[in-house]
Amino acid sequence: QKRKLHLSPEQCSNFYADQYGKMFFPNLTAYMSSGPLVAMVLARHRAVSYWKELLGPSNTLKARRTHPHSLRAIYGTDDLRNALHGSLSISSAEKEIRFMFPEAILEPIPAGQRARDYLALHVKPTLLAGLTALCKEKPADPMTWLADWLIEHNPNKPRLQYQSTEE
């Protein structure tokens, strides 16, 4: 998801509540409320660690020395204005997503045996059917064909039932 918004100083104070009491807190909330920002949700395997790697160190000067190709090294201007924010953990990401996207529905991510059971019951049968159909069809663009097939045959897709009424 992506959303452009302009936070008030009070909203910034709430967002950065864990930083309250630190010397830079007033400057941080003033800067973050000084103009519009773009909030995004990154959805992928190991998203938090992947994003941290792309961001580089929070200190822009250190980022330029140690991670010159990181986003903060490229776009940051100083320690306060390091250009981008990244959640520190999955739990903080969930909290921050709820803050920036209050209408978003966050579902718990199954792990361990629950994840294996879910995959075996819901994902593998649909994927196997799609890959079998792909092999039979042999389309010119197999990736797009499979993506379209999976969308069309999504077992969780809402289905409308029409009842004919005779007058």
What characteristics describe this protein?
167 residues; two-stranded antiparallel sheet; cAMP-dependent Protein Kinase, Chain A; mainly alpha; Alpha-Beta Plaits
Percentage of β-strand residues: under 5%
SSE succession: EHHEHHHHHH
Percent of residues in helices comes to 40-55%
The order of strands across the largest sheet is 1-2
Cα-atom radius of gyration:
22 Å
Describe the main β-sheet briefly.
2 strands, antiparallel
Chain-averaged pLDDT: 90
Measured distance between first and last alpha carbons: 46 Å
Q: Work out the helix count.
A: 8
Our count of domains comes out at: 3
Per CATH, the superfamily of the largest domain is: Nucleoside diphosphate kinase-like domain
Total strands: the figure is 2
Structural class: mainly alpha
Using the alpha-carbon principal axes, give the shape: elongated
CATH fold name of the largest domain, please?
Alpha-Beta Plaits
Q: Unreliable segments (pLDDT under 50, ≥5 consecutive)?
A: none
Based on the coordinates given, report the CATH architecture of the largest domain.
Answer: 2-Layer Sandwich
CATH class of the largest domain: Alpha Beta
Main location: other
InterPro entries: Dpy-30_motif, NDK-like_dom, NDK-like_dom_sf, Nucleoside_diP_kinase
Protein name: Nucleoside diphosphate kinase homolog 5
Subcellular location: Cell projection, Cilium
